[in-house]
# Entry
Amino acid sequence: MPTISMFFGIIVRMYCGKAEHQPPHVHVYYQDSKATFDILSGELTNGEFPKRQARLVVAWIELHREELIADWELASRGELPFKIEPLR
# Structure
């Protein structure tokens, strides 16, 4: 699962493969926490994540939604997604 971005100690990854399930989402990691966020809605859909870091992830998703959707399309075909700028 390639890392597509890292910011403020948060790692954002996206699985690659035709079997990856819908809806489009990213996997995020921060210290011992891990969660899944929906790309289209920005909602936390699985796992637990600290509130402050979750707000940062949601802001990052909002800023990069088009790039994330393009990466999801690549990943769902088994291709490697592109890196996306971190939140600054």
